[in-house]
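Tokens in:
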């Protein structure tokens, strides 16, 4: 999930923009507080969405604070934090760590190896707190690596694997809405995987990298993406979201399409 699950700022009010950014800053604070500050390099807005959905579902209030941060030391920022920004920061580190390991194993990347090593202390603590989620991330990334090595060109297979990964991350704990929350994350993961593959296809072909869409019929792209997002939204509507629905729905209905729409505009020119 990385780089797609963002808000469309053009459709947010100034107050919503400030609120959204303050949750991001709260997640950043959680990543740096009582950890190595370098953990902040893994920060992504995608995990802000996770924190906001879980907070809205459980009607969890944020604690608010104002202060300066290492990235923006000259201007005070507002931080909104709760147990779900902490959870999202843990998942942010876990996803980054296992991705670095995957890159190290696949490409013998020294940079990835160094980054993974920086997170070793934190990942040990996170695995103890969330063994189910960490095992799912590790197992699914291993499955994806195997699909890549076998050059599987049926996109449903790797997309389904990434869907299971994200479903496990969204399933914070067992509850009455656990199945729906898992299905929501799973459908979102499938959408993200296919979208990423679509946007990377030309570069992947040029660089001879794996991409399951090399035989893709591009007339199917928007229908498939719309179908996957429709499944995601169908599950979202079953969740008893108690607040922040305007920002969450901005992301689902508009923001998540930003990269795809940008590519379409570029290709038309």
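Residues out:
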């Amino acid at each position: 999930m990385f780089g797609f699950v963002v808000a469309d700022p053009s459709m947010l009010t100034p107050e919503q923009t400030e609120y959204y950014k303050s949750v991001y800053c709260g997640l950043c604070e959680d990543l740096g507080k009582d950890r190595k500050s370098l953990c902040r390099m893994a920060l992504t807005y995608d995990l802000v969405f996770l924190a906001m959905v879980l907070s809205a579902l459980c009607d969890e209030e944020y604690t608010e604070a104002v202060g300066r941060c290492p990235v923006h030391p000259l201007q005070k920022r507002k931080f909104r934090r709760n147990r779900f920004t902490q959870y999202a920061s843990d998942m942010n580190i876990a996803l980054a760590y296992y991705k670095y390991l995957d890159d190290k194993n696949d490409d013998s990347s020294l940079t990835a190896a160094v980054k993974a090593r920086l997170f070793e202390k934190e990942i040990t603590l996170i695995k103890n707190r969330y063994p189910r989620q960490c095992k799912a991330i590790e197992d699914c990334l291993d499955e994806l690596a195997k699909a890549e090595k076998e050059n599987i060109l049926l996109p449903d297979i790797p997309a389904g694997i990434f869907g299971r990964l994200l479903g496990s991350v969204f399933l914070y704990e067992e509850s009455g809405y656990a199945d729906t929350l898992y299905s929501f994350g799973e459908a979102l993961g499938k959408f993200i995987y296919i979208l990423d593959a679509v946007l990377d296809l030309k570069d992947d072909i040029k660089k001879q990298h794996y991409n399951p869409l090399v035989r893709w019929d591009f007339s199917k792209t928007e229908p498939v993406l719309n179908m996957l997002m429709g499944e995601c939204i169908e599950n979202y509507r079953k969740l008893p979201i108690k607040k922040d629905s305007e920002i969450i729905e901005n992301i689902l209905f508009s923001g998540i399409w930003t990269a795809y729409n940008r590519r379409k505009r570029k290709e038309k020119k």
